[in-house]
From TrEMBL:
Protein name: Transposase
Domain Integrase catalytic residues, every copy: 137-283
GO biological process: DNA integration
Top-rank taxon, per record: Bacteria
GO molecular function, one term: nucleic acid binding
Record-linked NCBIfam families: transpos_ISNCY_2 (NF033594)
Species per Swiss-Prot/TrEMBL record: Buttiauxella noackiae ATCC 51607
InterPro entries tied to this protein: Homeodomain-like_sf, InsJ-like_HTH, Integrase_cat-core, ISNCY_transpos, RNaseH-like_sf, RNaseH_sf
Length: 283
């Protein structure tokens, strides 16, 4: 075997060659060799036949130099990257992968799109981001036991329509978004409407978990009377629905995180579908 041929061997192939040579020299049986190589006795006999036929070079992988089964077709990654740069530059890898398949017929794995975007500088992996510390709070055990509610002001329709507010209802047990309603602003009557829509779809929850906005409680420190509840709280009491006001925004973190997801994905979905009004968004 020449020095040039030796360059074709990996360490695993050199180890395989030594063990097969021991079988040839009758220092090992095929069963013992198969056990050391981590293969079946039948596969070991195939390697032995290849060694006798082709010599040491028969131990090299026959797929060397061939295209891998999981390798992308030439130009496919460049095509996907061009589409992402021009249309989905602010999309996350998961949403970009979905839209590439849905709108352009490019079937790529989510992690493949993540790798393409990371190499192009369009995505920063989570491990490279600054660490954030969250105070955990145990979930309620059952769906509908506690619903976190909050309003989110945002340019939902970008420059195609006016800014508005979406009222978000998130189940504490599952983090599932149970109800969305686009309104002009947070008000008692808008929360009445969104709560009615929730009850029509899912039934009455045991409790609603909100912030300390004026819709939910009296914030006037100089108030001399009353039960500290606003009209929304009194109506919920009549319905046997408990209202709880969180002390911090972190305490209702599930609905706060839902805001971030909606501001990212929903805005882009509206853009793709051409939705530019609250009426169309509420359908």
């Amino acid at each position: 075997m020449t020095a040039l041929a030796a360059e074709f061997f990996t360490l695993d192939e050199v180890n395989r060659l030594k063990i097969i040579q021991d079988v040839i020299d009758r220092r090992l049986t095929t069963q013992m060799a198969a056990q050391r190589l981590g293969i079946s006795d039948r596969q070991c006999r195939r390697l032995l036949a290849r060694y006798r036929e082709d010599g040491p070079l028969g131990m090299t992988s026959r797929r060397r130099g061939m295209r891998g089964n999981r390798q992308l077709m030439p130009g496919l990654a460049d095509q996907a990257l061009e589409l992402i740069r021009t249309r989905y530059a602010d999309f996350g890898p998961t949403l970009a992968q979905e839209k590439l398949a849905e709108l352009h017929g490019l079937i790529l794995g989510k992690e493949t799109v993540r790798r393409i975007m990371t190499r192009a500088g369009l995505w920063v992996p989570r491990k490279q981001r600054a660490a954030r510390i969250h105070q955990p709070r145990y979930r309620r055990p059952c769906t509908g036991e506690l619903i976190q509610i909050d309003g989110c002001d945002h340019e939902w329709f970008e420059d195609r329509g006016p800014a508005c507010t979406v009222l978000v209802y998130v189940d504490d047990a599952t983090s599932k978004i149970m109800e969305l309603l686009f309104v002009k602003s947070e008000s008692t009557f808008s929360y009445f409407e969104s709560t009615r829509r929730y009850i029509d779809k899912h039934g009455k929850p045991l409790a609603l978990y909100s912030d300390k906005a004026g819709v939910f409680r009296v914030n006037n420190k100089n108030a001399t009377g009353g039960d500290a509840h606003m009209q929304f709280g009194r109506v919920m009491h009549e319905l046997s629905i408990q209202t709880i006001c969180a002390d911090t925004s972190e305490a209702k973190g599930r609905v706060e995180r839902a805001h971030l997801t909606l501001q990212d994905r929903l805005v882009k979905e509206f853009r793709l579908q051409g939705i530019s009004s609250m009426e169309a968004a509420n359908v």
